[in-house]
Amino acid sequence: MNKHVTGKPAQTAASEEDVIRLSDVRRRFGATPALDGVSLDVRRGEILGIIGRSGAGKSTLIRCLNGLERPDSGTIEIEGREITGLSEAELQPLRRRIGMIFQHFNLLSAKTVEENVALPLKIEGWAKAKRLARAAELLDLVGLTGKAKAYPSELSGGQKQRVGIARALAASPALLLSDEATSALDPETTRSILALLKDINRKLGLTILLITHEMEVVRNIADRVTVLDAGRIVEEGPVWQVFSRPQAETTKSLLSGIRPQLPAHIAQSLTADIAGEAILSLDIAGPAATGPLFQKLSEEFPGGYRLVHGGVDHIQEQAVGRFFIAVPADAAARLVSFAERLGAQVEVLGHVADHA
Ligand SMILES: Nc1ncnc2c1ncn2[C@@H]1O[C@H](COP(=O)(O)OP(=O)(O)OP(=O)(O)O)[C@@H](O)[C@H]1O
Fold this sequence. Notes:
Blueprint lengths: L1 E2 L14 E12 L2 E12 L3 E6 L5 H8 L7 E6 L2 E2 L5 H8 L2 E5 L10 H11 L4 H14 L15 H13 L5 E5 L7 H18 L2 E6 L2 H7 L2 E6 L2 E7 H6 L4 H6 L9 H6 L7 E9 L7 H8 L5 E10 L2 E11 L3 H10 L3 E8 L4
Parallel strand pairs: 1-11, 4-9, 4-10, 7-8, 8-9
Antiparallel strand pairs: 2-3, 2-5, 5-6, 10-11, 12-14, 12-15, 13-14
Keywords: Amino-acid transport, ATP-binding, Cell membrane, Membrane, Nucleotide-binding, Translocase, Transport
Pfam families: ABC_tran, NIL
InterPro entries: AAA+_ATPase (IPR003593), ABC_transporter-like_ATP-bd (IPR003439), ABC_transporter-like_CS (IPR017871), ACT-like_dom_sf (IPR045865), MetN_ABC (IPR041701), MetN_ABC_transporter-like (IPR050086), NIL_domain (IPR018449), P-loop_NTPase (IPR027417)
């Protein structure tokens, strides 16, 4: 497993800061290991993103967390309480510690917005006046003041998800589990829902676990990311580090849509023959990316280099730069070691005969 350096002290074995702790969780369906030794901590107050291809084990992980699926082996703790051996009755109160939001909102269409939000409290036995007061408070929090008496069919997708969030928060859960919650929304609505989740995370210190196939979601609001592949964690770390220097092939492939890629017509013209120009990828992120990289390259390589493609993104307020540059083939090795000394990660991708 590739672990990125977090810059934080290592978590102790029994940290009280962990809302969820999975240890070597395994779940197999016939010959398929849906979860193959997953160990994972969700720390109090953080937003953790879990990404993975279809079939990586994300849904199985969710079902194990809310007790709908029992692992074959391993342990799952919710706020320090081991759940794998619990009976259905013992699980109920712990299940309520996890609020869930879903891709298709799962609202009751025959009930009003306030009734939907108050439903978990009704199940907990709250008196009507008290639960409607709590629902009103939550509707204010999610920006739906005035919609208490509306029915779900009268709301937009984004508003429905806001109701879903309010309902998930009704019983003050320790963790909000988001299962592809923005996957059915358009980009603008997605951004507004993500802004709301971030706002709630900051205001209430709410811990959020995001399960998603949308890299943008993790990029925009998560603190840490865990990459699942075939039931195993292949990479994890702070989002800006993993997204700037993905190590596992799965992660590189998942991120290909949101990281600059060498334009296809240039990629197709690359050859292994060392001639003409070398095409290099250059990744630089965090503190190293704030230095005068290109000025230094220009000083050191007066013979010139060409910027072919790329740019600088900002993730978690860290600069994340990814560039493709072309240099005369005979200067490539020296440029690689020079740029690496400046903190960049450089790779020679191949050569092109002439200006591509
Ligand atoms: N009840 C089941 N019976 C048989 N195989 C299952 C069952 N549930 C999951 N699997 C298998 O386990 C693996 C992990 O599935 P899971 O649904 O957890 O992946 P996922 O990451 O959620 O995928 P997706 O993003 O497509 O929902 C897959 O190979 C799947 O076919």
